[in-house]
């Protein structure tokens, strides 16, 4: 006979009495803060503005601060000029490629990671060595590197951050702040002079024709294409209207032939 | 414009209130003093001539005043204990550890709209909560809280108790009938059926105790159990105690026999149409009933106010020499000042730098107060037998209150047919058997 009268009641009473003395898990929130890590920032989330654009400015500060390097960031910068990536070292991409390779048996090219192609670090190392790896004169350092490479490769910036100890966000921020520091290889730059003499000689029409031919506007310089710019000042002794290609005056370009010249220039591939 | 009106218009509201109430207070104080001086001696003579009447009035007033804090304490206890059993913390916002929760409940109930349904029999509707509550309060009159601390020592105490307890059924029926609502009426009838059914085994199981004690006076029942815990009637009448406990649970409408209310099924049964403080009376009566039933179990089966072991010290300190009043006041003052300072310094010493002197002084004062109350209470416990008796009575009674709350936190409600068949098929035969065996044993042993 398994049924004992009152046994169920006794069991229930015993259970509630145990519960009565059991410790309670309630956290009295406003008085007691829950135990969490100092650098805890809540759920990781990308926010969008009212127009549907990502509010992230790719400043990398979150990835920089992440204690376990769980933030893997990559994307184009806000001016859509270049691709950059920050994450658990560069091995992330390699690992992904290795994994894909293992599965498919052939390498899978990833065009987004061109910037992480191996770059000769010797020149950068020499500059850094001469400066004793001091990150404080950052602008001078970056200018020197740009003189050596012609531009600032992202891989070199990361290298600078690694060896000097300056946060990547700092180096990146400095490099993007100054206009004369660039991340892309210099393409062809067409500059139009807009001084009074050149304007009288047809400089305005030349600028308009070139902008139409090159599919761009003055001052905008998309990566890898022909950039159209404005000369800061007339080169002394040059004839009006003055147009320069990579800094060299092009006396053959006239107001009538500017559109054709521009079209021929746009058709050529970037050197 | 006279001087008086000009002054009045220039006063702010608090100043006007002061201007009204300060003279009023002065007049009242003078009137009180005059009344005491002029009417005091004849009044005292009159009261002295009618001492039983005075005693009755004082007892009724004291018990009526006692029930409200008792209900508050039990409501708070229920909230807190059931919360802990549900692995919660329970109320902790109002007052220290949420202790003022039931007080706030009371104020909430008071502030609610008080309405009666159309077609209700208004006099009966109004009287029903009063009858229920008074039935609960009247039963407390015969319960001996401590030696010398009881309302009336009736020689038919137990009978009076059950009679008054039976009157609460009347209140429930009145409530159910006068609400002009068939569900309320059904709830009232249902609770009447339950309480009347359980009244029979309840009374029959108490008869065994009455036979053993040879009296119906509550005081004498307690006295016949004096000695140690082994003299309690629980050991002579275990079956009766069990039946009494079960039936008392049903009498007090407690889980698992709370068919009367059954909050989740019946929408409070007979009390459906009640709101505000009228409902509050039913609510309070329920918790007062819990206290009463626990007190009765303590009195009948667990020795009432007697200590569970032979108390070693004789009560030889009854009364202190308080003739030198100034000296005692001085000593009390000195104890408080010195205690506050010393404890404040101790708080500073052990509590670290976070305690500044004012807060340490406040804490020291509280510690001193606790210590003094503890010492005085302990001295009173040793010196006065009624403090001791009250202590044991309250400890036992609240232990049973805890058991009732504990049961509410554990057991599910029974079905109404289970309820009835249990009362008539099990409890009634068992209590009759107990009565028969007890009577037979008494007859055989006395021969």
List keywords for this structure.
heterodimer, A: alpha+beta, 2 domains, four-stranded mixed sheet, elongated, B: 447 residues, mainly alpha, 15 helices, 72% helix
Would you kindly provide a brief summary of this structure?
The complex is a heterodimer of chains A (271) and B (447). By secondary structure, chain A is α+β, with helices and mostly antiparallel strands.
What does this structure look like?
The complex is a heterodimer of chains A (271) and B (447). By secondary structure, chain A is α+β, with helices and mostly antiparallel strands. Chain A has two domains: 61-177, no CATH class; 189-267, no CATH class. Chain A has ten helices and six strands. Chain A has helices at residues 7-21, 61-65, 91-104, 122-130, 138-149, 154-164, 168-177, 196-200, 203-214, 258-267; strands spanning 73-76, 83-86, 189-192, 227-230, 243-245, 248-249. In chain A, the strands form two sheets. Chain A has a four-stranded mixed beta sheet with strand order 4-3-5-6, covered by helices on one side. In chain A, strands 1-2 form a two-stranded antiparallel ribbon. In chain A, β1 (73-76) and β2 (83-86) form a beta hairpin. The termini of chain A are far apart. Chain B is mainly alpha-helical and 447 residues long. Among the domains of chain B are: 115-313 and 386-446, no CATH class; 325-376, no CATH class. Helix content of chain B is 72%, strand content 0%. Chain B has helices spanning 3-10, 13-49, 51-85, 101-111, 122-139, 157-178, 182-213, 218-223, 238-251, 263-266, 276-301, 325-351, 357-383, 385-410, 416-446. In chain B, α5 runs antiparallel to α6 (157-178) and α11 (276-301) crosses α14 (385-410). The longest helix of chain B has 37 residues, at 13-49. The A-B interface holds A 9, 12-13, 15-17, 19-22, 24-26, 28 and B 81, 84-89, 92, 406-407, 409-411.
